[in-house]
Amino acid sequence: MAKKPHDTPNLDQLESGPWPSFVTGLKRLAKDKDYVVDVLGHLEHSYKTRKGYWKGGTVGVFGYGGGVIPRFTEIKDDKEQPVFKDAAEFHTLRIMPPAGMHYNTDILRKFCDIWEKHGSGLIAFHGQSGDIMFQGCTTENVQKAFDEINELGFDLGGAGPAVRTSMACVGHARCEQSCYDEGKGLRTIVNAFLDDIHRPALPYKFKFKFSGCPNDCMNSIQRSDMAIIGTWRDNIQTDEALAKKWFAKHGMNELVNDVVGMCPTRAIQLKEIKDLRKGDGISSVAVNDSQALEIDNKDCVRCMHCINVMTGALAPGKDRGATILVGGKRTLKIGDLMGTVVVPFMKLKTDEDYAALLDLAKRTVDFFAENALEHERTGEMIERIGLVNFLEGIDLEVDPSMISAPRTNPYVRIDDWDAEVAKVNARKAAA
What we know:
Blueprint: H1 9-13, H2 22-30, H3 34-49, E1 54-55, E2 68-69, E3 72-73, E4 92-95, H4 105-118, E5 119-125, E6 132-137, H5 139-151, E7 167-168, H6 182-192, H7 194-198, E8 208-211, H8 220-223, E9 226-232, E10 237-238, H9 240-260, E11 268-272, E12 282-286, E13 291-296, H10 305-309, E14 314-315, E15 320-326, E16 340-346, H11 351-371, H12 378-385, H13 387-393, E17 403-405, E18 409-410, H14 417-430
Helix pairs in contact: 2-3, 4-5, 6-11
C-alpha cells in the first residue's frame, strides 16, 4: 500500500479540462507505488515555483556510454536530504523501437510488467527522440530493467553527442504511398552505426529518419540531420474507375476546391476530355463521361495533396526512390532549419542501392565528426562552412537545382549556368 498522497491542487486542475490528463495516469500508479506518490509531490512543487528541480549526473549500464537520461532531485531540506526521498532519482531509459513501430501485444505486456517491477510504470510511445521512453527508475534498478528489456531483443537508444535512434514510418509494410523499403533502410543504417549510438564520440547528436513518401510522417525534413524521403521521378499514376467512383461520392465542388484549387503549382487542371493534352509528362484521368483531370508532371512538386485526397484514383509514379536531405534540426544556435537536398533522387531497390545509401551516410557522419564544432548540429556546420565545401567534403557534385529560395537565391555561384545544367543532364541520362 502506498503512503499518503501529497496535496496537489495545481496538478488536480490539469484533470479538469476536456482532454485526458497525464496526472490521472500518475495518480493511478501512485495507488500502489510510494515512488510515484513522491513524483507527484515533486511535480506539484515545480508547478508552484515554476522551476524545474532535476539535475543530471552519470548513470548507465555495462558496456554503454549513453541511452540513459539521469535525473537527481534538487529539492532538499536544510540537512541536504531529499524532501521527496522516494523520488530522489528519476532516470529514463531510451529504448530503440522496431522499424515501422511494429509491436505485438505480448511484447507490450512484457514491457509493462518489467517497468512495473523495476520502474515507475510510466512508459511513453514514443519520445521526441523516437525512442520508447521508460520513465522513472532508481540507479539501483537501471541495470536490472535493461537486462530484462534486452532479453526481449531490444537495445538502448542514443543519447548525448552520438548517432541517435533512427525512426522509420510503417511505410512499405502497410502504406500504399511508400516509395521504398523504409524498414530495410533503417536496419541498414542502425546495424552499421551501432557503436556510434552506444559510445558517444561526435561533436553533437546526429539523427537519421526514414519517411516512405513526401507526406514525411516522420517529420524527417525538420527533425533529422539526414532525411531519406520517398519520392518518384515519372508521372503520377491514375485509375479511371476509382476516379469516377470518387467523383460520384464527392462531386464537382470538392474536386475543384480540394484538388485542383489546392495544387501549389497549378499542375492540375479540370478539362473537357476532348481538350486533354498528350505528351510524356502528362497524366490524365476521367472523372465523368465528359470531364477529366490533366496533370502536368513537369510542374508537380510531389506535395502529395491530390494523392491524399483521391487515394487510389491518383498514386505515386512507378519509378520510385528517395530524396536525401541533410541539415534539418530544431532550434539551437541559429534557429530551426529544414533539410537541404543533397541527392534529388536515389534509387532504393537492390542491396547495392542500400549499400550506396550507407556509404553516403558514413561519409556524411565522418565529415561531421571531423569538421563540426562542439555542440554544433550538421545544419549549423553547413551554414558556417558553406554548402559547396560540405558537398565537396562528402564527395557529391554540386547541382544547380540546390537552392535556398526558388528562382532567386542559389547556394552556388555558377557563372556558366547553361554548361553546368548540361553536365547535370548528361549525368542523369547516363545513370
